[in-house]
Design brief:
The structure holds 2 protein chains of 2 kinds. Chain A is about 75% helix and about 0% strand. By secondary structure, chain A is mainly alpha-helical. In chain A, strands 1-2 form a two-stranded antiparallel sheet. In chain A, a hairpin with a 4-residue loop joins strand 1 and strand 2. Chain B is mainly alpha-helical. In chain B, strands 1-2 form a two-stranded antiparallel ribbon. Classes of the chains: A mainly alpha, B mainly alpha. At the A-B interface, helix 16, helix 17, helix 18 and helix 20 of A face strand 1, helix 5 and helix 6 of B.
């Protein structure tokens, strides 16, 4: 296959899935849609994942499509994450009444994934902006998908307003970059930014507003808790994992390819932002009574931890970011999946409604234990290795103080994650016999959660292959 | 390739935990039987291991196994035991089995209880046998987090939430502080030699610069020593002991605290020997405070379990004191003390648990005359008490005598001060024995105190006989420990 085709093979396959969803939908009876649409999307995405992995592996690093995209392991690795995340999300969507019968919901999910895939490989300023918009617009709609639910509408609207504003600022930043460098090709930007000065500072600041919104860095995080709380839970899971990872993909490529000469400047900006993000995310999470808001703030904090690896600006640092994202995607998707599964039965997202969960559904409780301990950073789960790698990268590059801030934050995290675990395992339902209130988990959930939990444990124990994979992705940037 | 005994000992409990979680929740009997079978299996293996190490009588590590895990970063799954760790592996096996026997009656979600207990045990085994710094941390954390669940779910209702959280946060902070130190060692050694590895056998030879050792010794040593209950970071420990269910208290005081002391020795003193010499005075001083202060606080407690909890702080202080002398005598004593105290304190907590299960109180003032309804428990408690006091003929003497010998060599005045604890220990132990086990049985308990089960008896007899055997025949453990000590001292440059 020609490289132009190979470079966008995952995107083409995704497009095929999207078309299939649209074309087949009218032929199904309303009763069948619920099952068929979800399995079709999830199955199609899985096939796309496998096919890309088999046929679309990049050899080295090559430009394709007239320099619009770069075909390398970094982009490829992230594409796999997105497709995986979308497949799991499709499974989770099958049990949400309002989403599961609507082909549009699945179509939007796949469309957003296509946008993310382009984000991961974009090698041109124009392409970067287009990809971000292609990702964002379907996500705005998905977040506000529950029309008769005020919170969901609010979530979608808030996301849209913040997204539109920050993307305008980002666009302004990109146009300044073009003005200074005279080119939109990412690879030729570096010579224009050779010295640390006010101009580079200004440009970086504008870019960080736009991308900081995507990865929910403090102070561009305000949308996240409200949007996660209001959006349909599977969509919130997708937003907090794949969408965030896509933001990281662009940050990595942009900063390391276009701004290596002014590294010290963006390292310091990001270090400060990382400290703010971790600290604020964790401190505010302490006070949450709603599990979705708690996980929302915790995922803000996690963006801060991952950022430490980027600040370290080394081979190990970038590797650790990619590794962190692998572990984080698995873990946070699992957390949101469990929240969706429980919320479907209890119709509540308050932490109090998790009382007695370990008696109502031992396996769901166990899955929650694994997910939350992985978020805490306990072995033998993925989160532990990810955190150690990020901190190690910081120590190696002389950012020991940042690693220490990260560690202090993990301790705050430990407290609120354990508080939730305590509610699940220790507290009991008020005056009810838990055995009378089991929580049924449907088949798509069982499948998705099993995959995620096994994944979390595999990443945390047999971490060699995953590390090698992350390293391959990082190698393209040095 | 030789039989991979160390990996089997370590991974069997972990595999068993996963297996048990797959059982149906109703099938409680199967869970218990599985737990017992696995515990027996692991005890037999660790006893065989002990015997082999004892017979070979070689300095240095034995039964080394190495599997590449992440070669790019120099992480490997490297296991091995020396004279210091082999007894601790055996101790873990013993406490694991007795803990299962004593927890037989747990009826609230036994599946989860035994699974978490075994994850804990697997982590403990892993730390004792790891020769790779990264893996040591990995197992260390695995050993810490099940404690939270075990204490908060099955613990004493009044304080469990508070105690479990306090314990977890203390230990987590300690371990991450030590982790930063370990990363610093890893990178410093890597930059100096070009070989990035977590292999402790390599790091032992690294000879870090004196300033580096001076800076990093304290974070690393103290980070681990938190789990060993060192003053002023001992505060989590009595609360944790008291709140935990019996088997977990046994594990906690019997094995986990040794884990902290052992890791402090293995990573702190062995990898940063010059730092250890620089800070010897501080560690020695803190340990001395531990010994005396712990004993004093134990004396004024009114709750039976708090007495034992603080006595553990005091006795673990002796272990630290032994380490801090950096002399062969002191360290040998500390090694024996780790084993002896592990058995003794497991016995104490088992006995206290049995009393509490029947009397539903641990207030010493409310108890009395327990020797009549519970003769086995009383005898076991008295034997434990004699060991605790350091009576000749019991393992405590074999341990404490060399420690004080070593302490005298380092600083005779401090040794005298520390030895005050012996008298105080005798005082509070005898006081507790008299008040709780002798005298009149209070009227409310008359006829309400049922006998203990045969399984409980097996557990008590096993623990008691071990202490007597060591006391009468120190040769079964002392030569082995001194080999382990030689392994440590070779790094301290003939000290």
């Amino acid at each position: 296959m020609p490289v132009d085709l190979l470079a966008i093979l995952p995107e083409l396959l995704l497009l095929l899935v999207a078309v299939l969803v649209l074309v087949l939908d009218p032929f199904w009876k309303d009763a069948d849609r619920r099952v068929n649409l979800g399995w079709l999307t999830a199955g199609g995405l899985t096939v796309a994942l496998v096919l890309s992995l088999l046929l679309g592996r990049p050899g080295g690093s090559a430009l394709a499509l007239g320099g619009m995209v770069r075909f390398d392991w970094l982009g490829f690795a992230f594409k796999l994450f997105f497709i995986f995340g979308a497949a799991i999300t499709a499974l989770f969507m099958m049990d949400v009444e309002m989403l599961s019968r609507r082909a549009e919901a699945y179509l939007l999910l796949v469309a957003a994934t296509i946008g993310m895939c382009f984000m991961a490989s974009a090698s041109n300023l124009v392409m970067i902006y287009l990809a971000i918009e292609t990702t964002s617009i379907p996500l705005y709609v998905l977040a506000g998908f529950l029309l008769n639910n005020d919170k969901s509408t609010e979530a979608g609207f808030k996301y849209l307003l913040f997204g539109a504003t920050t993307s305008a600022i980002l666009l302004y930043g990109l146009s300044l970059v073009y003005g200074l460098a005279g080119t939109t090709s990412l690879d030729q930007l570096a010579p224009a930014f050779t010295s640390v000065n006010a101009v580079s500072l200004g440009v970086l600041a504008l870019l960080f507003v736009g991308l900081g919104f995507k990865v929910s860095l403090v102070p561009f995080h305000f949308w996240a808790p409200d949007t996660y709380e209001g959006a349909p839970t599977p969509v919130a899971g997708f937003l907090s994992t794949a969408s965030k990872a896509a933001g990281f993909a662009i940050l990595l490529r942009l900063l390391l390819i276009a701004f290596p000469q002014v590294a010290l400047q963006w390292q310091w900006i990001l270090a400060v932002l990382a400290v703010l993000t971790m600290t604020l995310g964790n401190l505010v999470a302490l006070a949450q009574k709603n599990i979705k808001r708690l996980v929302a703030y915790s995922s803000i904090a996690h963006a801060g931890y991952a950022m430490i690896g980027l600040v370290a600006y080394s081979n190990l640092g970038v590797t650790s970011v990619v590794f962190y994202l692998i572990a984080y995607i698995l873990t946070n998707l699992a957390a949101f999946g469990i929240i969706a599964a429980v919320g479907r039965v209890t119709a509540s997202d308050e932490i109090d409604s998790y009382r007695g969960l370990s008696r109502r559904s031992p396996y769901l409780a166990l899955a929650m234990l694994v997910a939350f301990l992985s978020l805490t950073g306990m072995p033998p789960f993925g989160g532990f290795i990810a955190k150690v790698l990020v901190f190690a990268a910081a120590v190696q590059s002389g950012w020991t103080w940042l690693a220490i801030v990260g560690i202090l934050n993990s301790i705050i995290g430990l407290y609120y994650y354990l508080t939730v675990i305590k509610v699940v395992y220790l507290y009991r339902m008020d005056g009810e016999d838990e055995a009378q209130h089991p929580i049924a988990v449907s088949r798509p959930y069982v499948l998705a959660l099993a995959v995620l939990i096994i994944g979390i444990i595999l990443v945390g124990t047999i971490f060699g292959p995953w590390f090698g994979f992350s390293q391959m992705a990082a190698a393209n940037l040095f | 390739m030789q039989f991979p005994i160390l990996s089997i000992i370590t991974f069997t409990p972990l595999a068993a935990a996963v297996l048990m979680l797959l059982f149906k929740p109703e099938r409680k009997a199967e869970v218990r039987v599985t737990a017992l079978a696995v515990a027996v299996f692991d005890l037999l293996l660790s006893a065989w291991l002990y015997l082999q190490v004892y017979i070979h009588a070689a300095t240095g590590y034995q039964f080394i196994e190495e599997y590449q895990w992440l070669p790019t970063l120099g992480i490997s799954l490297k296991f091995g035991v020396d004279g210091m760790s082999a007894p601790l592996v055996l101790l873990t096996g013993i406490v694991m089995l007795t803990g299962v026997l004593i927890s037989w009656g747990i009826d609230d979600r036994p599946r989860e209880f035994f699974a978490f207990l075994f994850i804990l045990a697997g982590g403990v085994f892993g730390v004792f046998v790891s020769l790779d710094l990264f893996m040591l941390f990995f197992f260390y954390e695995i050993a810490v987090f099940p404690m939270y669940l075990l204490i908060s779910i099955w613990g004493w209702v009044k304080t469990r939430e508070y105690a479990a959280m306090k314990l977890t946060i203390y230990l987590f902070i300690g371990s991450v502080v030590a982790l930063i130190g370990a990363l610093a060692m890893y990178f410093t050694n890597g930059q100096a030699t070009g070989v990035y590895t977590f292999d402790m056998l390599v790091l032992e030879k690294a000879a870090f610069p004196p300033l580096f050792q001076y800076i990093w010794f304290l974070p690393v040593f103290m980070g681990f020593a938190v789990l060993g209950g060192i003053f002023p970071f001992h505060n989590w420990s009595p609360d944790g002991h008291v709140a935990a269910p019996t088997a977990v208290s046994m594990f906690h005081a019997g094995v986990l605290m040794k884990l902290g002391a052992f890791a402090a020795l293995r990573v702190g003193i062995m990898l940063l020997p010059e730092g250890a010499k620089d800070w010897q005075w501080l560690i020695f001083g803190l340990a001395m405070v531990n010994v005396v202060y712990g004993a004093f606080i134990a004396m004024i407690q009114t709750d039976l379990k708090y007495v034992i909890g603080f006595s553990s702080v005091s006795h673990m202080g002796l272990v630290m004191l032994g380490f801090a002398t950096l002399t062969p005598q002191g360290m040998t004593g500390a090694g024996v003390q780790m084993f002896s105290h592990g058995v003794m304190t497991a016995l104490f907590f088992a006995a206290v648990g049995m009393v509490y299960d029947r009397a539903h109180t641990r207030e010493i003032a409310k108890l009395g005359g327990m020797v009549k309804p519970l003769p086995w428990v009383a005898i076991a408690f008295i034997i434990g008490g004699l060991v605790s006091m350091g009576m000749p003929g019991f393992s405590g003497f074999i341990a404490e005598f060399p420690i004080f010998l070593g302490a005298w060599q380092y600083q005779w005045l401090a040794a005298i001060i520390a030895s005050i604890s012996i008298i105080i220990t005798a005082a509070y132990i005898l006081l507790v024995i008299r008040r709780a086990f002798f005298g009149e049985v209070p009227a409310e308990f008359e006829g309400h105190i049922g006998p203990i089960s045969p399984l409980d008896k097996v557990a008590l007899v096993t623990l008691c006989s071990l202490m007597v055997i060591i006391g009468l025949f120190p040769v079964v453990i002392v030569p082995m420990i001194s080999l382990g000590v030689q392994n440590v001292l070779r790094l301290l440059g003939g000290a």
